[in-house]
Write a structure and sequence with these properties.
disordered N terminus, 74% helix, 18 helices, disordered C terminus, mainly alpha, two-stranded antiparallel sheet
């Protein structure tokens, strides 16, 4: 044996040991990151951190940082906003873009693709928006406080799915699918509410330019452009134009998402034939090369080229919608939403005035809307739809579990705070009351939903 062979043998016996150890150490982390409940847990941590910071000596520094000006300047234009504004109008546009991708996928191939099947979550979501808004208006029928009627309409999908995931296999999968479909319809409703009722004065020039960007996005889809980059560039331009138009910029994310192609550039037979041929070529290269390094891809340029061709074939088979949704979902779940929570959940609470805050009409309207209005709206709408024969309950799902879904729909954290920041932008005191109501209601709704579903699944299992 040559000296080099001896060292290679030692390396081969040593590195697999390290690789196995590293794999065992990383697997729990990777598994944790891929669990549906992870983003919800991270969101809870960020909410807690923001609340503690806002009620500590660190609050002045926290507030000063969020209101610091950040300018983006080019030879063509210059935009200057506070960091808080960039988070709510910039990062959240990407959040709404992913929401738009999810909505389009659900309409094409998901729970909303079959009309009879879709009637139940759509009806439940509408009931879960109308009744909470009505509950809020009961306590705030007129004046400046009435502007918050849209706050209790929203559902925070990350929190809701995070809590339902904690129940594991006790919850039927069709019930989880219904919650997701309901939350997506809820998101559509929230986007429409923001666009129609929480929009500033319209500026015609930027609005027409936004329309031009949307036409170009649609044309790119129709002519068969399947690379994500053109859609990303046009989407950013659309966002900038809509920001200047007066319509809330986050709507640009949804509009851009609906223009992203859901069809791939190759069919399944072409893909299968290409992959089969490339796999055969790869195996042939393994057989041609002899010696201890024959499995090492880095030592064979032909194998590297084949792997690149396989990767290209996979990308051509995937639609841009799939690639974008898959690529951005983790960024939204583990960065954008937590950053939004850190920036918006920092509520300085004057505990000496807590009784006054809790009894304020805005706070009561949010609490009643999210806690009572949601569950009544979701459960009653579902019952009426099934009773009139418009749709059926998913297999294995009971009305008791639908009530539990109604409680979870009352977790309105992210979208509710977002709408509150729009409705009460000129009234900081009302915004503070609304945020306190949202946090209290979301925590109570989460606990109630978890307890109710745990009890109802146990009861249904006994029957």
């Amino acid at each position: 044996m040559q000296p080099g062979d001896k060292s290679n043998s030692a390396a081969r016996s040593l590195f697999p040991m390290f690789e196995d150890t590293f794999r065992r150490a990383m697997s729990p982390i990777e598994e944790f990151l891929h669990r549906e409940s992870t983003s919800g847990i991270l969101l809870m941590v960020c909410v807690t951190v923001a609340l503690v910071t806002a009620n500590s000596p660190l609050y002045p520094a926290y507030d000063a940082f969020l209101h610091a000006e950040l300018t983006i300047s080019t030879p063509v234009f210059s935009i200057s906003h506070s960091i808080h504004h960039w988070i709510n109008d910039g990062l959240m546009a990407l959040f709404f873009f992913v929401i738009g991708l999810e909505v389009k996928r659900e309409i094409l191939i998901g729970e909303l693709s079959n009309l009879r099947q879709a009637v139940l979550p759509i009806g439940a979501a509408i009931g879960g928006m109308v009744v909470p808004a009505g509950c809020f208006l009961l306590f705030n029928p007129a004046g400046d406080t009435a502007a918050g009627w849209g706050i209790p309409m929203a559902t925070d999908i990350a929190f809701a799915v995070g809590i339902i995931a904690l129940l594991g296999s006790r919850v039927p999968r069709p019930l989880v699918a219904m919650l997701l479909a309901l939350a997506i319809v809820d998101d559509i409703g929230a986007v429409l509410v923001i666009a129609l009722f929480y929009t500033d004065a319209i500026h015609t020039g930027p609005l027409l330019f936004s329309a031009l960007c949307l036409i170009l996005l649609t044309a790119a889809n129709l002519v068969g452009i399947r690379r994500p980059l053109p859609y990303a560039i046009l989407g950013i331009i659309l966002w900038l134009a809509m920001m200047e138009s007066g319509i809330h910029a986050t709507l640009a994310g949804v509009l851009a998402a609906f223009a992203v192609p859901a069809r791939s550039s190759s069919d399944a037979q072409q893909f299968s034939a290409a992959i089969t041929s490339l796999a055969a070529d790869f195996r042939a290269q393994i057989n041609i090369v002899s010696g201890p390094g024959r499995l090492n891809v880095l030592r064979n340029s032909q194998k590297q080229a084949i792997l690149q061709s396989i990767e290209d074939s996979v990308h051509h088979m995937e639609s841009p919608l799939q690639r974008m949704e898959h690529g951005l979902h983790s960024w939204v779940s583990f960065l954008i939403i937590p950053v939004f929570a850190l920036a918006n959940a920092g509520i300085p609470i004057d505990f000496g005035r807590l009784d006054e805050i809790v009894t304020h009409p805005v706070t009561i309207g949010v609490l009643v809307g999210l806690l009572a209005g949601k569950v009544i709206g979701v459960a009653l709408s579902s019952w009426l739809i099934v009773a009139f024969g418009l749709s059926d309950l998913p297999e294995g799902v009971t009305f008791m579990q639908i009530i539990g879904i109604g409680f979870l729909a009352g977790i309105g954290f992210t979208m509710s705070i977002f709408i509150a920041s729009l409705g009460f932008a000129a009234h900081p005191d009302y915004l503070l009351n609304a945020k306190i109501g949202i946090v209290f209601a979301s925590v109570a709704a989460g606990l109630a939903g978890y307890s109710w579903l745990r009890g109802s699944t146990r009861e249904s299992a006994v029957q």
